[in-house]
Write a structure and sequence with these properties.
With 159 residues, the protein is of the alpha+beta class. The chain contains three helices and eight strands.
C-alpha cells in the first residue's frame, strides 16, 4: 500500500498486487457476487455504468455494514469504479495483464485510516485465496490478519 496525493487534495491509499490469473479471472472474482471473492449474499451489482453496487462489509461497531454506490466505470475486464455520492471519492479497481499474471491497482474511496488500511489488506488477501481455490478467511482469521497488519504499520510509525 502506498499513499498518493493530488495537488492540494486529500491523501488516498493505493494497493497494488499481482495475481497468477488472467484479468478475466480476477475480474470475475471482483464483480460477480458468486465469483468466490465476496461471501455469499454480501455483494449485489447491476453491472453497468449508472448501476448500483452494494457490498456488505459486516458489522461496523454495531452499524449495518452495507456500502451502496453508483458504478462510474464498468469496462470488463479492465476497470471497475464506483462512488457513494456524486461528490464522493471514487473507488477504482484497475486490472492490467502482466505476462501470465494480472496487476491489480486498487484505490479505495475511503481516507487512509489504520482500520481501513488493515481491512483492505485482509480483503485483498481473500481475493488471492479465492483465486487460488482456497477457502476465504473466517471472521476470526480476518480479524487476526487485520491485527498483524496494524502492528506492522504501528511499528513503521514508531508507535
Amino acid at each position: 500500500m502506498r499513499l498518493v496525493r493530488a495537488a492540494n487534495g486529500p491523501w488516498r491509499m493505493v494497493f497494488q498486487r499481482r495475481y497468477g490469473m488472467s484479468p478475466e479471472s480476477v475480474w470475475q472474482a471482483i464483480t460477480d457476487p458468486n465469483g468466490g471473492f465476496w461471501r455469499p449474499d454480501r455483494m449485489h451489482i447491476d453491472p453497468r455504468v449508472g448501476g448500483e453496487v452494494a457490498i456488505d462489509f459486516g458489522d461496523c461497531d454495531g452499524e449495518d455494514g452495507w456500502a451502496v454506490a453508483q458504478i462510474t466505470a464498468y469496462e470488463p475486464p479492465r476497470l471497475f469504479a464506483y462512488r457513494a455520492t456524486p461528490d464522493a471519492p471514487e473507488a477504482r479497481w484497475l486490472l492490467q495483464p502482466d505476462g501470465h499474471q494480472t496487476l491489480l491497482t486498487f484505490r479505495p474511496a475511503e481516507a487512509p485510516l489504520l482500520v481501513i488500511v488493515t481491512g483492505w489488506h485482509a480483503t485483498l488477501d481473500n481475493l488471492a485465496r479465492a483465486l487460488a481455490g482456497q477457502p476465504l478467511l473466517s471472521n476470526a482469521e480476518f480479524a487476526a490478519r487485520e491485527e498483524v497488519v496494524a502492528q506492522r504499520y504501528r511499528g513503521m510509525l514508531g508507535d
